[in-house]
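Subject: Interface between my chains keeps coming out wrong

I've been trying for a while to get a sensible model of this assembly. When I model each chain on its own everything looks fine, but I need the whole thing in one frame so I can look at the contacts. Pasting all components below, labels as-is. Any help appreciated, I'm running out of ideas.
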Amino acid sequence: MSGDSVIELTSLSKRYGSTAAVDELDWSGGRGVIGLLGPNGAGKSTLLRMLATVLSQDSGTIRVFGLDPAVAAERLAIRRRLGYLPQEAGLYRNFSAYDLVDYVAVLKEITDRTTRRDEVRRVLADVGLTDEMHRRIRTLSGGMQRRVALAAALLGHPDLLVLDEPAAGLDPDQRLRMRTVLSDVGQRATVLLSTHQTDEVAAFCQRVLILDRGRLLFDGTPRELAGRATDRVWISDVPEAGALRSWVTGDGDIRNIGTPPTGATVVEPTLDDGYLLITTEVGVRT
Amino acid sequence: MTSVDQWHVSDHELERYVNHTVPTFARASVEAHLLECDRCRSELNLLRSTAAPDGDDDDVWLRIADRIDVTGRPLRSSTTALRVSTSSPLLLAATLSVAVGVVIGVAIAAAVAPRASLPLFVMLAPLAPVVGAVLAFQTGIDPAGQLAMATPLASGRLPYLRALLSSGAALVAVAVASVFVPVGLDDVAVWLLPGLALTAFVVAVSTWVDPRRVALTLACGWALLVAMWSWGPRRRTISLDLSNLAVERQSVQLMLVAVTLGSAAVTFLRRHELPGWRSR
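Reply #2:
Try treating it as a single job with all components included. I did that and got this:
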């Protein structure tokens, strides 16, 4: 991880009524691809929206590139270096994919026509929509529409990419392409993305965060996440009463996480195991 | 790690890992290897490049297609400002509804109760551009608002361009509606100046707070004022003496012009503030 922090959060909190979406969060991160895992309602989208400067916090501080999004001039400076893919990215259904991305390029102050055209073409190619760029949005599949929005986020080589579930609705091929593109971007910029897929994290994230009920449960490398479940995963023929979680695998075995009984067949943990162990243990404690 | 140096995940296995078809026991080992091995991670990237041929021939054809496209689409050649400001179909529809509503409302009033048509017109005309401006600041009215919000232009120009467009459209509609009422070209200051002043004021206020409440308060105040002039206790009948309003009162006109210019200056200075374009 780079020593220079792109994002710095101090005691960051955001509440909706009596529910804390983000609760006293302290965190900092630099260049690379960072995966944000967590169950639904964990506060992932709230956190990403605050980082994308479109939502203000209740308390605590946010610094992006050392700038404060609460100050208008600094917010503008952040937005000039930011790409954001919202969870629910609405699109103009009668625009073509090209026109929609071109429109966002205008909003991103890419005013020179030739530069804009080349840039729009580049990002559409990055997400694999070159052949469909002149089709109207309403004729595109859900996955393609998602890629149009992703292309818009990639415009202008942003230094910070905030992506709320970029892989949602994408087929495996498209996800592979997305990973490659984002890995490239992660070489020089910060990519923060939320996901429900641990294989997403395994394939290309250098760092993974687990958020649950607004609190940070884990911050480390994917390997460290899997490592958390070392000696805590075992296979059995019948469900184990002492296990924190048990489930039937595709092979027909019962896979358990928790504290294995003596003589149990302990197996190598996956990221899924690490994730489930951490979130389940917290659920049991509270 | 020696084991990592000795073997690598095959392309077939990589594909199966991505497609979630690797058996659970093998998945852990593929995953553990991927985390350790740069070579296999780059293999994953290579899979993509073979799947996406971007040849020069394609590019030539696309450029030709683009040329043809441009001539076929007059909108494409319009100015950037107009494209950005008209890019919310919902906003355009809402603004047009307000404008058409004013025209139809005044026309009906003129036909049904001719004497009430002038007070009604003076009451509604300055409020139409205010409604147009307020609509422009609502992010929810833009289907792609979420996508636009985090861009630099959303910090300033976009909502103002839209406000200009929607309030301008409302003003044009009001000018059309004025055909139905006994208000001449000389009396244009009666509705235009208050309309501009109210709109400019609401836009300036929007740099501090959500303009909806302020606009509603101002609208009620203006409507009450016009009602008082028209239905005052000494009048008993519905009538409106235009000379009482602004036409012959230069001080009132000057005040309205000052409010308009002052609000415009405040808006310019605080153009990046717009709390409405940032959720709370």
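Reply #3:
Confirming on my end. The radius of gyration of chain A is 21 Å.
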